[in-house]
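Reopening this ticket.

The earlier resolution said the output was attached, but the attachment link was broken on my side. Pasting everything inline this time so it's all in one place.
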Amino acid sequence: MTAKDRKGPDNVVLALVAALVVALATCGWLVMENNDRDDAAREAREQASTLDAEKQANKDAIEAASAFVAEVTTYSYKEGEHDFDWVEELQDEKVREQFRERVADLQRTIVLSKTSARGQVTESAGRVVDRTQVEVLAVVDQAITDQDGKVSVEQSSIRLTMTLVGGEWLVDTLTFLSSVDP
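Inline output:
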């Protein structure tokens, strides 16, 4: 008797076992596909969260840098109106020391020339290094008033490295770049 001649319960059992194996394999494949989709979705959510955090870091760092630059580029020759305490806010000791050395000469020049200035950030952009560090480029219009009351506007740019310290964006480094041609 050949396998072809057999009929009855043996063939049915074999067919059922084969169908069960196919069904289990299909279920296993579907579970793995679902897990892969879950992993992909989880990874996409993590990437979106990282991008949101970086976007917020960029926004907050630019805002803090703009306020700092406005403070740095605004001064007056009048006693008590030319505060250079911003130098102490610099986080990099080497940079802070370089500015400390220049401040006395700058204050003396401002007082002797009876000059005042008001700086305003007109454009800014940031590049996120990571969630705790952002490089910012700020373009500044600085209205300078001389002792005769004549006002001139100079445009310049400043590059800052902002660092998140204790929940606050602080200036790590500060570089005055050349004037910007209008």
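Reporter confirms the inline version is readable. The mean pLDDT is 84. The chain is about 45% helix and 30% strand.
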